[in-house]
Specification:
- By secondary structure, the chain is of the alpha/beta class.
- The protein contains three helices and three strands.
- The protein has a three-stranded parallel sheet with strand order 1-2-3, covered by helices on one side.
């Protein structure tokens, strides 16, 4: 299998990307998902991770908040991890339909 080559010649040419992770009761998978994203080779100052929780009732929220607190230091070039919660919920969606 051929390895992918970097299509960008200079670090400055890399686009800034946002990785959006939408979760609900994903405690068994969120750790590996975040670890995979945070340990990849894309420059840490060129992306952010946004975790959106859909009213989880397991430990997904605890781990997401812990990770957000640990990695949310943008001033020194490290990746930013943000945790958001979806307050709208299913009941609100049903009202709109």
């Amino acid at each position: 299998m051929k390895k992918c080559e970097n299509v960008f010649a200079e670090k400055d040419e890399l686009p800034f990307i946002s990785v959006l992770i939408v979760v609900r009761n994903e405690q068994d998978y969120i750790k590996n998902c975040l670890r995979s994203i945070l340990e990849q080779r894309y420059p840490s100052n060129s992306f952010e991770v946004i975790i959106v929780d859909g009213e989880s009732s397991d430990k997904t929220v605890d781990f997401a908040k812990e990770t957000a607190d640990k990695y949310s230091i943008r001033s020194d070039g490290t990746v930013s991890v943000k945790y958001l919660t979806n307050k709208i919920g299913r009941a609100s969606c049903r009202e709109r339909v």
